[in-house]
Design goal:
It contains 1 helix and 22 strands. The chain has 280 residues and is mainly β.
Length: 280
């Protein structure tokens, strides 16, 4: 097995040039900025790509991302990580990306797909650090992004799903942190945190906690259902746009901020003042 620890910016490794399935690790002792090395950087389907939390450089750069593919990517450095999934001629998928930037991240993590040979993104977990999903990203049909960890503690996770993504994101799960959506989301689930949806629609949302600020100028038939559970908040007052929602179910203990003069909820099941027995 080749690969192992990267020893120079141009994808030079202690164990020799990595091949498909190998590990590529940017060690904590490295101070260089890793760069795309042309054919090498675009011809490897790695098993693992990892940046150590003490890595003192950037991985790629804004406008010049490193294009490759990996089964698992673990991002822990804090000075910038710029990556585009390359299909390598056969529409490959990067299966899992975990973003857990240690300390105070000073530059974003940018994830996308190669313009010339796009590979799919599948699952992304953002625990800590600011992550941008670029407008050229390609999602597979079951793609899922999770923001924050299941203990609901806010560790500084932030997410932006940029406009221009042609594939609807199948699932977005927000545990904590802040996120902004500018492309279509098929299903949103929230346990905490704040999600702001601009520009594009959400088809279905289940708010078990947190706050959804829905700024998209929705028309009838776009939002099939939004369920607002106890302690969760649906906010339509983030701007003055007219909005037409098909269905909102507001359960006891929830909060819905809206203005009937500019917002239309075709089927509003308002149970906020109901007793538990009435809901059952």
């Amino acid at each position: 097995m080749a690969g192992g620890q990267m020893t120079a910016a141009d994808w030079t490794f202690a164990g020799g040039t990595p091949t498909a399935g190998d590990k590529a690790i940017v060690p904590g002792t490295a101070t260089f900025n890793a760069i795309d090395s042309g054919a090498l950087g675009e011809s490897i389907d790695l098993g693992l790509l990892l940046t150590h939390p003490l890595f003192g450089g950037m991985f790629g750069s804004q406008g010049t991302p490193i294009r490759t593919c990996a089964g698992f990517i673990h991002v822990m450095n804090s000075l910038g990580f710029y990556f585009e999934c390359d299909g390598l001629g056969s529409t490959l998928t990067t299966d899992l990306i975990v973003v857990d930037c240690k300390g105070s991240a000073t530059a974003p993590v940018e994830l996308g797909s190669s313009e010339t040979d796009p590979g799919d993104l599948d699952k992304i977990l953002v625990v800590r650090g600011a992550t941008v999903i670029k407008g050229n990203a390609a999602f597979n049909a079951s793609a899922k992004i999770q923001l924050g960890s299941t203990d609901l503690l806010d560790r500084g996770a932030a997410l932006k799903i940029s406009s221009g993504i042609s594939d609807a994101l199948a699932n977005l799960l927000v545990h904590s942190g802040t996120s902004v959506g500018e492309s279509v989301i098929s299903a949103l689930a929230m346990c905490g945190g704040i999600h702001t949806q601009d520009v594009a629609k959400i088809v279905r949302a289940d708010l078990g906690g947190g706050r959804l600020i829905y700024n998209h100028a929705a028309v009838g038939g776009e939002v099939l259902s939004i369920t607002v559970q106890s302690s969760a908040k649906l906010d339509l007052m983030g701007n003055s746009k007219e909005k037409v929602l098909d269905q909102v179910i507001a359960l006891p203990g929830s909060d819905v901020l809206w203005n009937p003069s500019i917002h239309t909820i075709t089927d509003f099941k308002d149970l906020r003042n109901a007793n538990a027995s009435d809901v059952a």
